[in-house]
Amino acid sequence: MRLLNFDICSNSYAHSISAFGNEWDLHNLAHFQELVYDFKRNLIILNWTIDYATSPWGAPKEFVNVNKLSILFNKPNIIFISPSNNHFKQNENDCLLGISKIIPMELNSFIMPKYRTKIEWNGEIYNLLFVFQSGLSFEIGAESAELKLKRQI
Q: How much is the pTM?
């Protein structure tokens, strides 16, 4: 996968992504809203809302009006969804625990995501793993991923 206009701040269990000269904290300031599969455009879209009211730093000056963030996965080739852990409340589904780059699963072989992380990536193919506080997780493989910022009215 190629990350077109953003990067993950750490290769394993990152709370934030960096893009457009800023760090976007998806753990403390963002609330996950939905996963959309747009088969006509061949996209998977993850949508968050951003709440700067709880931020001790406030909104970035040049992005003060941004309150929606989306990651678009172009030409997805896999999505694997693991359900929430029953011991957690459903409202924990919107709080991101971390994002990791992981080695894609081989066909007919399941290896837990925590055993597919690496410290460094040197051009190898990877999927992105999104894990939420509730245990819900999405593993997504695609040709590329792009960050979009929006003003939600």
A: 0.86
